[in-house]
Specification:
Blueprint (H helix, E strand, L loop, with lengths): L11 H10 L6 H11 L12 H6 L3 E6 L5 E5 L25 H14 L3 E9 L5 E10 L7 E7 L2 H12 L5 H12 L5 E7 H5 L13 E7 L17 H11 L8 E3 L2 H8 L2 H7 L6 E10 L5 E11 L6 H38 L8 E8 L9 E9 L5 E11 H20 L4 H15 L16 E8 L4 E7 L5 E3 L6 E2 L21 E4 L5 E5 L11 H13 L7 H12 L8 E8 L7 E6 L5 H16 L3 H21 L4 E7 L3 E8 L18 H9 L2 E6 L4 E8 L1
Length: about 725
């Protein structure tokens, strides 16, 4: 290395190098390394600080580059720069980690072109053995353009590094990224840094203490990122049980968490003992020492969240001040790990609830597929998106999608309540607009202070869309409360959003409330309906209408023969951003419906002979369908009782509909009455209510649904 500046030169390199020459002892890094290599093995341990030696531990260096960014001169004689291969004629980028090469190269060329210095960039430099050194890098233009550049490097001062590390570690709520940031910061004190977390911490569970024999550590982070020996534990792997127990016992000596230092490989072998544990924990075959620092949550009693490990060459032992710095950094950042754990726990709980609400499957008349993609872990948290689909007892299918305001457990609680309430009301026969009216009232009640959910959270403005598919008429009845319009792709392939009149979200102020409307659309067999939440179509770069148009284009590419689950995932992958700040939810429904020859409908006047006419027509149809004898006896009697009840209590025409499905027969009798048939406890001599008791005995289930003109009583009979 050239460490003697020319007296006739006034370049930046010579000025910096000349200043360094007054402080760096002759022999530099080579002398320091040689002395360490010849020292006695007992000195390879934690070394007390020596003020005289501290003056020789310089942190400044300089490298001169030509216009091709190759090294022309170098002064990196300080011991801290030992191992940096800045050879004359070699590219400067050889000193950089591969991922930093494009950025640093761009900075170097920018200084060459503009002549403006770039100062104090925090950068890592690679040593020949693969370890890294954290420095503050400044790029200075030469006095004359033909001389190129001077790069000055300052090994990061401890206090500055502590501050920068703590700032970087607290920027993510993802527990893996938090552990990785901590490991990268610890690398400034060694050659390899690893963070191992208690498995309960990794999964977000609470940690109050570890019973002996049940300790389990998982590697959460490891730097530098390179190929490791076979058997070495890398991120995502569980440590062998022996290794977990040894590490936990080491940092909990005398039941108090504390840092430990194992100075060399011989001592490491004595402590670990097993060759299998050595392969799992020791990064390579060369002689190495390690400092193990517990991640301790400040509580009473203190709780150990995991262990941070810093490995370095045995000829460079840990000094007291370095060990104190390591403990300070880990202590400062342990609470960030715990915050990430709490976020992970909430994230997991909400995700489990939302996945329970996802549709399981369709039926004979409709095919359903859904995709739920939660927000990225370091966002505000899992949102309140929910989607559900379920068959109704009368043969229709309900499709429901909603978006609760906010994130986290508060939104999840509201989401679960609204989803279950919607399902119960729809199963009871209420129309979509009536269900939304009840949900609107529920959201208003949830926001009252007495409800206990108003502190720091409000569900006002949540949205919901309900669609009911009738497989006989092939119609979809839809109501929306502030939700984005569904996209319908008819069999001819012309996709587009449904023309749904906008409506305020749930819980809107009284002055903004309007009656919920029911929109009815035709959905012939082969149609594809897409319900979604705003996270799928919102993009800051485009308008919401353009986002919906992009969704329509993506859904229109789904072929009728495509498997619907794969098609749904493909649509989401095309539209959803890589780093999403909101949940993404998509529900695809392919309409199948009943075949024409599996349904029959009759309209009868409300007269005394209506039951007999209904029995005759139903009996003829059952013979045509080839039904069993017991079915041909049961169904006409059932229809006769329902028609008799309609004639007795209603006016206007009566509609009889019979539907043949894969699992049974569905009988429907509609009238214009508004009475609610109820099964009562009649006495032996009571004539009223006998018909409903007969219906109850003959069917597997029955019920009532309400229409704009009256009601429909339906009953199902097993085939």
């Amino acid at each position: 290395m050239d460490s003697t500046p020319s007296p006739s030169s006034s370049s930046a390199f010579d000025l910096v190098s000349g200043a360094l020459g007054r402080y760096i002892p002759r022999g530099g890094a080579a002398a320091a390394a040689g002395a360490g290599a010849q020292g006695d093995r007992t000195t390879r341990q934690r070394v007390p600080d020596n003020p005289a030696a501290g003056r020789q531990d310089q942190i400044l260096g300089a490298v001169n580059l030509d216009k091709d960014l190759k090294v022309t001169r170098c002064n990196l004689d300080a011991p801290v720069f030992a191992g940096l291969g800045a050879v004359t004629g070699s590219p400067f980028v050889d000193l950089l980690p591969p991922g930093d090469v494009p950025t640093v190269t761009r900075r170097l060329r920018q200084v060459l072109e503009t002549g403006e210095a770039h100062v104090a960039r925090i950068q890592r430099l690679r040593r020949g053995d693969g370890s890294e050194l954290v420095v503050s890098l400044s790029i200075l233009p030469a006095a004359a353009p033909q001389e190129g550049l001077t790069v000055s490097v300052i090994a990061m001062a401890t206090r500055l590094h502590l501050y920068a590390a703590e700032t970087a570690i607290g920027t993510s709520l993802d527990i893996g990224e938090t552990a990785q940031s901590l490991a990268e910061s610890l690398l400034a004190w060694g050659d390899v840094a690893a963070v191992d977390l208690d498995f309960a911490v990794w999964t977000g569970e609470g940690v109050t203490g570890q019973a002996q024999g049940r300790i389990r550590l998982r590697r959460a982070a490891l730097v530098p990122d390179r190929a490791w020996p076979e058997g070495y534990v890398t991120p995502g792997d569980d440590l062998p049980s022996d290794a977990s127990r040894l590490l936990a016992q080491a940092v909990r000596r005398d039941d108090a968490p504390q840092a430990i230092v194992i100075p060399d490989r011989e001592s490491v072998e004595r402590v670990l003992g097993s060759p299998r544990v050595m392969r799992a924990l020791v990064p390579g075959d060369r002689s190495a020492g390690v400092a193990c620092i517990p991640l301790v949550l400040d509580s009473a009693p203190p709780v150990v969240l995991g262990v941070a490990e810093v490995w370095r060459r045995a000829d460079c032992p840990f000094r007291d001040s370095e060990l104190f710095d390591l403990q300070e950094l880990v202590a400062r950042t342990a609470h960030h790990v715990d915050l990430a754990r709490q976020h992970q726990r909430e994230h997991t709980q909400v995700l489990a609830l939302q996945r329970r609400l996802l549709p399981r499957a369709g039926g004979d008349t409709i095919e359903i597929a859904s995709v739920y993609q939660p927000a990225t872990p370091d966002s505000a948290g899992v949102g309140g998106d929910w989607v559900n689909s379920f068959p109704l007892p009368d043969g229709r299918t309900a499709l429901v999608v909603g978006d609760v305001v906010g994130h986290g457990l508060g939104a999840a609680a509201t989401m679960g309540q609204l989803s279950m309430e919607a399902r119960a009301l729809l199963s009871a026969g209420l129309a979509p607009d009536e269900v939304l009216e009840h949900l609107d009232e529920t959201v208003t009640l949830l926001d009252e202070p007495e409800a206990g959910l108003a502190a720091g959270y409000s569900a006002l403005g949540s949205t919901c869309c309900i669609a009911l598919y009738d497989p006989v008429s092939h119609d979809v009845a839809l109501s929306s409360a502030g939700h984005l319009p569904p996209v319908l792709v008819p069999p001819d392939g012309r996709a587009g959003p449904l023309a749904v009149r906008p409506h305020p979200g749930l819980g809107a102020e009284f002055a903004l409330r309007e009656p919920f409307e029911v929109h009815t659309f035709g959905a012939p067999p082969g149609s594809l309906l897409a319900l979604y939440t705003d996270g799928l179509v919102e993009d800051p770069a485009v308008s919401i209408d353009e986002g919906i148009s992009r969704l329509a284009d993506a859904v229109s590419t789904v072929h009728p023969w495509d498997a619907l689950p794969q098609a749904a995932r493909r649509v989401v992958s095309v539209l959803a951003p890589a780093h999403q700040r909101d949940d993404v939810t998509l529900l695809l429904a392919r309409m199948i419906g009943y075949r024409k020859w599996d349904t029959a409908t009759w309209r009868l006047p409300a007269r005394y002979d209506a039951p007999a006419r209904a029995r005759a027509q139903v009996s003829a149809l059952l013979r045509q369908w080839g039904s069993r004898d017991d079915t041909r006896d049961t169904v006409p009697l059932l229809v006769s009782e329902l028609v008799t009840n309609a004639v007795r209590f209603a006016t206007g025409p009566i509609t009889v509909r019979l539907i043949r499905s894969g699992h049974g027969l569905l009988c429907e009798v509609g009238d214009t009455g508004n009475g609610n048939p109820r099964l009562g406890r009649g006495g032996l001599l009571d004539d009223g209510g006998r018909g409903l008791h007969i219906v109850h005995r003959l069917t597997t289930r029955w019920g009532v649904r309400w229409t704009d003109t009256g009601k429909v009583v339906w009953a199902e009979v097993a085939r």
